[in-house]
Amino acid sequence: RLTPVVVSSVMSSYAKATYTRDMGIFDHLVELMVQNIKEYSNRQVVGGLWACARMFSYEKALPDHSDTFPLYLLNIADLVAEIVERADYLTPKDTAQALYTLGLLEYKEQGIVSVLAQRAKELSSLFNGQELANVLWGMSKAESKSFDVVFVLIRRLEDDDSLNLSPQEASNVLYALGRLDLRHEAVFTKLCNLILDQIESASAQSVANVLWASRAVYFRPPQKLLDTWAIKKLGLVAIEPSEQREGM
User: Fold this and answer.
1) How far apart are CA 107 and CA 20, in angstroms?
2) Taking the C-alpha atoms of 88, 45, 112 and 100 in order, what is their torsion angle to the nearest 10 degrees?
3) Which is nearest to 26 in space by CA: 63, 51, 62, 2?
4) Do the beta carbons of residue 22 and residue 29 sit within 8 Å?
5) What is the DSSP code string of 17-75?
6) pTM here?
7) Terminal CA-to-CA distance of the chain, rounded, Å?
8) How far is CA 75 from the centre of its chain?
9) pLDDT digits (tens, 9 = 90+) for 114-145
């Protein structure tokens, strides 16, 4: 009989490698986890749910993706129910990953999402930058209605300069706030400046998230950030106002 450590480790390896050639093994591992779920740690159950979400996201994006319902998804409800039952004992890392995973699955059952969101509120002061970004992104994709939680997290973003968000994390937060239709100028400006300060490592997706978020909440796009990224990453040369006038 496979131990919880082996089952969860192999599931994680499948997901990280997005290995889809023999999904029968993955289906079997998920079923084993659900059958003996009380033997698995919180970390293992949350990781199992994430592995299912990761595999589904990858399969869904394949050009030859079929409409056949993957067998492992039949066990999603049991995994989610177990995580909710253990919500009071989840660590910041587990809570952030669980909410991020619900976002990946676009799991919009608010009775479930709200339980994990409230746990996030309790742990809000303990999240690191990546975890906080994952919580907000997941809540936005799951269309969370727990705005009291969102406001607590936004306040942390506004007041705490030690979070050290990466450009991707900052842009994911901006994207999340756009999806939640929340207009917070101070946080928007702070996150854009964080990305600008790390412009060398900002991806095209990060910049796209910034543009999308600014339009979603009717903010003027951060021109300095966009110009700097275009110069640094694309090799474009900014045209001075005097040059523009001469060319007219």
Assistant:
1) 22
2) 100
3) 51
4) no
5) HT--TTHHHHHHHHHHHHHTGGGS-HHHHHHHHHHHHHHHHHHHHSTT--SPPPGGGGG
6) 0.89
7) 77
8) 22
9) 999 999 999 999 999 999 999 999 999 999 99
